[in-house]
Amino acid sequence: MPSETLWEIATAEVEKWGSNGSEGNGVETGEKSVFFIGSKNGGKTTIILRCLDRDEPPKPTLALEYTYGRRAKGHNIPKDIAHFWELGGGTSLLDLISVPITSDTLRTFSIVLVLDLSKPNDLWPTMENLLQATKLHVDKVMMKLGKKNAKAVSEMRQKIWSNMQKDHPQDCELIDPFPIPLVIIGSKYDIFQDFDSEKRKVICKTLRFVAHYYGASLMFTSKSEALLLKIRGVINQLAFGIDKSKSTCVDQNKPLFVTAGLDSLSQIGSPPVPDNDFGKLHAHSPMELWKKVYEKLFPPKSINTLKDVKDPARDPQYAESEVDEMRIQKDQELEQYKRSSSKSWKQIELDS
Fold first, then answer.
1. Is 208 helix (H, G, I), strand (E, B) or coil?
2. How far apart are the C-alpha atoms of 327 and 315, rounded to whole Å?
3. Residues 6 or more apart from 303 whose CB is under 8 A from it?
4. Could you tell me the Gene Ontology terms of the biological process aspect for this record (predicted)?
């Protein structure tokens, strides 16, 4: 019998962890999962390594990667375990979102969306595609879980809505909180802070609206140790249940930091668009209106995201001399075949 692959072992472990969880009785297990998705090369791995106190250079995430961390709760008390998943490839590998999110893990699952602030034209499509795909799968899993344990699903929904401010009841009619905890991180703030003031204003207000709409926390970070420490605190809250920060910063001239439920539509204001252009924008929802305003200033680039995925066969971190030599030989044979085929077709055209 062939030995199990690392992927099969990891999958089996996830299923085992989930089966050992609570049965919706309100008792949280000592294990939580945090799933990092977001912009390609946006800094997801760097954030994870910092949260785990691992002093090592980040490597490109090829597809879906897993690691874990432990935290002691006290003497002779079992350590809490946090499972960290990371989706690589930006928006090109959406099918892999379904792998770590299952009915067994959903109740202790959180999403961290990392968006590259230095690439504002890619920001909206990255955010939209990833959140839509993730929400679609989470909704399916919740429906499946609800058939077995309706109480657990009801508790999850109540917990999300409980974060919303009670003194802004009108917001509840215009927002649609994400079904599981969500944190949105704007990375590379060190580059973003040099943007034109008007551009920063649009990006900040738009992300505040998106975060509030989904009931998410929002914060900006960079390589700054102070900012990374604040991010680490937020991730630790998701991973180990540490008390969340209540601090808020909505100044567009500073790194944003807004905990879920502490913002409001009245504080965010209307989309930043000239009054004479407002009537020209036709939208069916607040989210669509903000999208139109944002993309007017930062039109999305039409890029085939699949082209962004690095070929693992040519990635030096997976180099194997014997396999690589055989690959080179096969590539040469393929090129030779293409050339000979081309000559044959040209000869046929001449003969005809």
1. helix
2. 13
3. 122
4. determination of left/right symmetry; intraciliary retrograde transport; intraciliary transport involved in cilium assembly; regulation of cilium assembly
* Residue 68 in this model has a pLDDT that exceeds 60: yes
Q: Are 37 and 97 in contact (CB under 8 A)?
A: yes
Side-chain-side CA neighbours of 82 within 13 Å: the count stands at: 21
Would you state the structure tokens that stand for residue 329, as one six-digit string?
A: 């030989």
Task: Tell me the two tokens of residue 190.
Answer: 């060190």
Note whether 159 and 192 are within 8 A (CB). Answer: no
> What pLDDT shows up at residue 173?
82
Does residue 29 register a pLDDT over 50? Answer: no
* Amino acid letter for position 70: R
pLDDT tens digits along 178-192: 999 999 999 999 999
DSSP E strands in 88-223: the ranges are 109-116, 182-187, 217-220
Count CB-CB contacts under 10 A for residue 265.
17
Q: Rg for the chain (alpha carbons), in Å? A: 23
pLDDT tens digits, residue range 197-210? 999 999 999 999 99
